[in-house]
Structure formats: structure tokens, C-alpha cells
Amino acid sequence: MRKIGVTEQGDAALDLSWGDKLGTVAGAIVITKELSPAFREVLLVNQERLMLHLSCTGYGGTVIEPNVPTLSQTLEQLDRLLQSGFPLERLVVRVDPIIPTEKGIATAKKVIEAMYRLGVRRIRVSVLDMYRHVQERFQRAGLPLPYGNNFQASTEQFKALDQTLLLIVCEHPGLTIESCSEPALKIPEKAGCVGKYECDLFGVDMTNSENKQRKACLCCGEKVELLSIKHPCAHGCLYCYWRD
Q1: Chain Cα centroid distance, residue 99
Q2: How many CB atoms lie within 10 A of CB 216?
Q3: What is the Cα–Cα distance from 105 to 128, expressed in whole angstroms?
Q4: How far are the Cα atoms of 20, 131, 133, 141, 173 from residue 136, in angstroms, in the given order?
Q5: Cα–Cα–Cα angle for 199, 203, 206, nearest 5°?
Q6: Which CATH class is domain 4-225?
Q7: In the chain, what percentage of residues exceed pLDDT 70?
Q8: How many CB atoms lie under 10 A from the CB of residue 240?
Q9: Which letter, b or e, does each residue of 149-173 get, where b requires 16 or more Cβ atoms within 10 Å of its Cβ?
Q10: Which pLDDT does position 133 carry in this prediction?
């Protein structure tokens, strides 16, 4: 059975090697924080074989994401891509991760509303995981730890985020907010990054598919990584799960 390719180990705009592997998969989900001209060209040529997951947290250009485009730059890049003919039904915007402090929730809300105005109707959210090496990066950058010494957000922080997401959904008709591996969030629809929609789109049978990823992951098991990077990419995000 042919599988669905993914680019979860790196950024698909910074490493275009996945494009050479499209012939080995039924289709691919390419994940990026940056719609560079070279990346847009590959997307448009291969659009019928791809799903685009565009990550935008609202922290681009800050110490948290120093080499990532700002929100306004990302909106401009995305508008250019859509005007060039890339279909909205093959686009997911990932607000990933959200820092569920008062400021962080307001930042995520701003991103979602801006994307909605541009026509985006499918949003995926996740919440920041504070690995020990991520805590150390925050401390070196002089930033407060949003959860103290804890790995995950508190129950109150998850509830505050849920309340905002509920408000956003109620105020924006047709908007879908999804999450995977976030059981503490109640408002988002539970769906894997590689789920039924993607399997149907690429003609992959997920009936007997067993997911072998981390606990609470809802992804179809019929996926294969197309990148081989195992270190932080050039975007330099403080929250990157890869160690320096």
C-alpha cells in the first residue's frame, strides 16, 4: 500500500528534497512556516499531489521565532499563493504552538481571525510543550517560563484557551478548528494531521491502519517521513523539539 508523505522532521520550504520523493507516495502533506518563492513554485507545479500545512503562530520575527516571517509577511505570501491558483481545500493553517497565557491566547486569536479574513476555513491548533531544553532556551533568552517548571499548561490555561476558541468558532461561520494529541482541549475537533480527509483525498485506505506514534496521536499510520533532518532548522524557534 502506498503511504502519505509528511515533512514533520523539518521545514519543507528550507529543505525541498521531499519534492524528489513524491513519486514514492500517494500524496504528501508539506509543513512550513515560510512560503518562499522556490517553495511556492514547487507547490503550484505539484498541487494536485499535495496538502499544505502552513504554520503561523504570530511570533514570527520575535525572539521566539527569530527567522520566521511576521504575521503580515505570512499573510502577504499566502495571498500571493492563493491568487496564483493554489486551492483553499488543500490548505490548513497551523497555529502551532499556542502559548496559553493571556498574551499568547490573544496572539493566537489575532492569527486565526486574520487567516479567516483571507479565506482560510481549516485551522489546527496545538499547545506549547516545555521540554527541558526548551525551558533552558527560554531562560537564556530572558523569557518567563509560561508553566513554571512544568511540561504542560495548567488546567486553567487549557480552559482559558478553550473559551477563546469557542468564541472564535461562534463568531466565524464555516470555520473548523482541529487538534491532534491535545486531549485537554475540548473545543477543537479531534482529528489527526493525516486523517480521513487526507486519506480520501490521496486514495489511501486507512481501515486497518495502526498508528504507532506518541500517545493521543490521531494520525493514520499510513504515513512516511520525507525529510531526514534531526536538528533545529534555520528558523531557530525556541520551542523546537530537536535539541541543539
Answers
A1: 14
A2: 12
A3: 12
A4: 37, 9, 5, 9, 41
A5: 45
A6: alpha beta
A7: 95
A8: 17
A9: eeeebeeebbebbbebbeebbeebe
A10: 97
| Mean pLDDT of all residues in 169-196 | 92
Distance CA 113, CA 116 (A): 5
Closest CA to 198 of 43, 1, 48, 51: 51
> Measured over all CA atoms, what is the biggest interatomic distance in the chain, rounded to whole angstroms?
49
- pLDDT-wise least confident of 99-108, 151-160, 203-212: 203-212
φ, ψ for residue 109, nearest 5 deg: -60, -40
Residues 209/220, Cβ–Cβ less than 8 Å: yes
* pTM tops 0.90: yes
The whole-angstrom separation of Cα 153 and Cα 161 is: 10
Peptide bond connecting 97 to the previous residue in cis, omega within 30 degrees of 0: yes
Model confidence over 49-66: pLDDT tens digits?
Answer: 999 999 999 999 999 999
Angstrom CA distances, 61 to 137, 237, 243, 244, stand at 16, 10, 21, 20
Strands 91-98 and 50-55: parallel
Instruction: Choose among 51, 122, 53, 40: nearest CA to 84.
Output: 40
CA-CA distance, 19 to 137, in Å (whole number)?
32
Residue 219 carries which side chain, given as an amino acid letter?
Answer: C
How far apart CA 143 and CA 161 sit, in angstroms, is 21
